Amino acid sequence: MTIGEHLQTFDGRPVQDWRPGEPLPDLARVALRVADDEPWENSGEDTITASLRALVAEAGSLVESLVIGAWRSSFEAGPQSVVDALIGLAPELPNLKAIFVGDLTFEECEISWMFQADLTPLLNAYPSLECLGSRGTQGLRLGPVRHASLRSLLVQSGGLPSKHITEIVDSDLPSLSHLELWIGDQNYGNDVTATALKPLLVSRSTLRYLGLRNADNADEIARAVSDAPVLNDVDVLDLSLGTLTDEGAEALLASSKIRQLQRLDLHHHYLSDAMTDRISGIGIDVDVSERKEAEVYSGEEYRSVFASE
Amino acid sequence: MITIVGGANDRRVTGFASAAAAAGIDVTVMSYGAVLDGAPLPGEGLVRIDGTDGDDACEQRLRGGEDVRTSPSEVLPFAPWYDGLRQFLGRVEDLVEADRFLAPPSDIGLMFDKRRTNHRLAELAIPVAAMAQHVPASADEVLTVARDSGWPRIFVKPRFGAGGARVASVSLAQDDAVLVSPTEFTGDRIFYTKDQRPIRGLNAVRHRLDRLCADDEVVIERWYPRATLEGRAFDLRVLTIAGEPQHCVLRSSAGGVTNLNLGGRRGGLEQVRELLASSLDDVLSTCRRVALEAFPRCLHLGIDILVSADRRHHIVGEVNAFGDLLVGTTHRGRSTFEAEVVALPSWLASRSAFAA
Q1: B140 falls in which pLDDT band (50, 70, 90)?
Q2: What pLDDT is stored for residue B24 in this prediction?
Q3: pTM, rounded to two decimals
Q4: How many Cβ atoms sit within 10 Å of the Cβ of residue A296?
Q5: Is the ipTM of this complex over 0.90?
Q6: Shortest alpha-carbon distance between residue B330 and chain A (Å)
Q7: Contact (Cβ atoms closer than 8 angstroms) between residue B269 and residue B281
């Protein structure tokens, strides 16, 4: 499966496309999505920077949430020029709270193919930023960084290199309450083992939501997280969109900590009916919707995550 | 009176025949085989050439020789079929006065030739996909052309024929490639499959491309990211009748190659209007230009329109001579075939060539 649609919401706000000349919506309510005006051009400079400048000129101090869509030649290069423009415009976007970089569908660029940029300078340029989201991990960097305001970090990947776990572990994020990582497929770069995850799963007093989603080693991740100290802190554990089977669910059931959660999100899973019943009955809110069936080719079973290619 | 030349079970043939009969027009159906055997066409009246869907014997006859397929899903190279089609069309053209056709055989032949169709539209400055001039003989040539053109993603398609079989999308990186195609490559045979799992890696992709290039002359088109809806990419099929866009359907697929017969779903004009808003007018005006400037002597055309991700840009994909089978789709209460029949008298009058 793949990312088939642009973001409908980001950080709790509806996303609305905008380009210069169009009326601005209520910027306290809406995340503005800005993308290249010439999506079929494959040379020259994209229009995102110009759109951002026009936005800043019109209502810079009102902008709170931005979603960056496809940039020029996004199939071949990362959003460096857009990131640079955002950094340059930081003084004129004093109330920007949330940025998503890379809202591209599979038609624009497959998630595993997408190029990203070093987003560390972006975090540094916006010390009051509260939410950062990104899609695609080729060329991505996320720190280490010290950022006092960041409350939500979302990294969507078709195959997450474990070095990004290290970058997050080595960062100082004292306000972080929502950490959402799309782990992806081992054929597309996911090397996030239980060992790699361990330093992330230590006690994190501010964390309320932990998402280790879209993982094709969901069982290993479920085992790793099931008794981890971090579960004492979070209210929500999200292992959805992956390939969780009964094996991983057994580990969750065996954990004394799972029942202390408010919510366990497992939707898009490969659990048996019996296990679905058992795990639903642990006395907390458990999402076991979107059950998938393994596909069998030449006697081998294949389970796929939501987005990998 | 109208003579339809086509497969007796082709749903376009039966659909148009019943719409015409309901309007009180005499209809005769003749098979391709009968024409090729030398049977005379009626000396008067109109002639509609249709497809031969579901008529394996006729398909085989166009190819010449025995049916060598090992299963119904095997897809043979298109070149021999196109040779047969061209000969057949040439024969019909010789037998019938030019002003009696609902679409000239030469136009029908052209529409099954992607290179010439692309060229004709591009010459008229109608927006189409960029197509490489070079005819690649091998995978390496395909990859070189793509790189030299600055196209990181391409479609490789048989020059002749229609439909999604033997069509592949290829994405290229410095030392990597991904190919997606509804094509299963088994030994030296090629089968149609709905399983469009990507084939990754330069060598694997090269191997498949070599096969496609060896079997058919292929064209290389730049690949354009399309708009998506509910998680699927979509394009439009617009039916023009007498130059005017009428029926319009939205077709979508989750895979790399969208085509109606590849399991696409449909939505109607209302949904399209909602999705495209003011861009729809541009799309319709492009369709009018295709009909009036590129194929002015065709009563109807099935035009495939690709829409960009921001739904503000579009290009013409294919133009289909047999593109009017849009079951369940109506325009002003009429099916595609009913609308064609209704439009016929004024279309003929406007050509001032009503011979029947």
Answers
A1: very high
A2: 96
A3: 0.90
A4: 9
A5: no
A6: 29
A7: no
